[in-house]
Design brief:
- The protein has about 190 residues and is α+β, with helices and mostly antiparallel strands.
- The longest helix has 27 residues.
- It has a 6-stranded antiparallel β-sheet with strand order 1-5-6-4-3-2, covered by helices on one side.
- The protein has one domain.
């Protein structure tokens, strides 16, 4: 069974230019890799910049180059952190992230398994995220975080992508296995360039 939420585009044409990274849960515990998320995100941003050459004498081109690089680094880091933080540790499925270059946009895809008991809460959050005004929800979440002494989850990553980078975000849930239950979620972020 497959469930789609938000702006998940299953009909996206294949990209000839892409970068994919995969993290195996069996070699090093994923939580120990937390510090490498930023490094992996920056690597993806630097790799992508080879497709957007910077013209040293054009200030607008330099600014656009830096804007794209910063957006890629931020979005990839947020997606990796979420995938690792909410991964189902019982599942031996890898976590993957890919960045695709299309004519008019960049597409990020992350896939990880999620604990079945967290599915309902996550989908409720996605419903709120996709049906609310992102700016209003962002402010409400900031206020909620300021009042939260436990500081367990900020829930600002997707909102920042939507507000600051005008990204389109979607999710695909796939029920991979029944016993034991294994569910994967693929998060798609589309960024116009």
């Amino acid at each position: 069974m497959i469930q789609l939420f938000g702006e998940f585009n299953e009909d996206l044409p294949p990209s000839q230019e892409y970068l994919a990274l995969q993290f195996s849960p069996s070699s090093v515990p994923l939580q120990q890799r937390w510090q490498n998320n930023g490094l992996s995100a920056d690597f993806m941003a630097y790799y992508l910049m080879s497709f957007f050459p910077s013209h040293e004498k054009d200030p607008e081109a330099i600014a656009k180059h830096q804007e794209i690089k910063g957006a890629v680094s931020y979005i990839a880091n947020e997606l990796l952190e979420n995938a690792m933080k909410f991964n189902d540790e019982r599942s031996q499925l890898p976590i993957s992230i890919s960045l695709q270059l299309h004519a008019d946009k960049l597409v990020f895809l992350t896939t990880n398994s999620i604990p079945p008991q967290s599915l309902a809460d996550f989908q409720t959050y996605i419903q709120e995220l996709t049906t609310s005004e992102p700016e209003e929800l962002y402010i409400r979440q900031l206020e909620k975080n300021a009042e939260d002494d436990t500081n367990t989850s900020s829930r600002l990553g997707f909102l920042t992508m939507m507000n600051d980078y005008l990204a389109k975000v979607g999710w695909k849930f796939e029920f991979v296995q029944k016993e034991p239950e294994v569910i994967t979620v693929t998060t798609m972020v589309q960024l116009a360039v």
